[in-house]
Design a protein that fits this description.
The chain is mainly alpha-helical. It has one domain. It is flat and about 40 Å long. It starts with 11 loop residues before the first helix and ends in a 6-residue tail after the last strand.
């Protein structure tokens, strides 16, 4: 399970470390599962980098990549 942020008042660097710590266990489980089903560590690393790039681009621009057609679709960034 991924832990919630402890505080919103710490520095950006502290939040980045806290986020990495919170994600680490799930990340390691995902990578381990991928290896167990036959993916090589370098394939996993490259795929995760690609997914990270896509996620960051989506968050910055509000455009997501449709995984089935690889075409751009608009995503609402409104929070309620």
């Amino acid at each position: 399970m991924i832990a919630k942020p402890k505080t919103r008042t710490c520095t950006l660097a502290q939040r980045e470390i806290e986020c990495a710590t919170a994600l680490r266990e799930e990340f390691e489980l995902l990578a381990d599962l991928a290896e167990r089903v036959g993916w090589h560590w370098d394939e996993i690393a490259l795929a995760l980098l690609e997914l990270t790039d896509e996620y960051a681009a989506t968050q910055r621009t509000g455009v997501a990549v449709d995984r089935r057609r690889l075409s751009a679709v608009t995503v609402s960034r409104t929070r309620h």
